[in-house]
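Fig. S4 source data, part A: sequence.
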Amino acid sequence: MTIEKANTTDSEILTQITKKSKAYWGYSAEQIQKWEVNLTISSDYIREHDVFKLVKNEVTVGYYSYFFEEDKTVKMDNLFILPEYIGKGFGKYLFLDFLNRMKEAGVQIIQLDSEPNAEGFYSKMGFVKIGSFETSIKNRFIPIMEMKLY
């Protein structure tokens, strides 16, 4: 397994991973379609953000992306794994790679807006819920989470 910087040519596979991973949580095809814009990882997005993919046996099985909010604060924007790899340590493997990059960069705070079904994963990784906001789906709230590295 390797983790490598994504190329702009990876946009289609990363978008497919995002949609399949989101659908894993039981969202309908109709709902995934409504989220099309938010679930698309374009070539421009890859050019403008830090995006790293996890490759196993020449297959991209997951990725993460982030951007700097401020000098020492980073927003983790995405962390998605193909459904057949969920629950097998691949998410943790990707997250620990991300965390090491952040520590090396001197980041002090990591923030993210979690998929509600992934809140437990992020809590296990050391994040704390600091707020939430309601989505377009009634009574569905996105946890806002934070991890302090100092």
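Fig. S4 source data, part B ends here. Helices lie at 11-23, 29-34, 36-39, 43-48, 90-104, 119-125.
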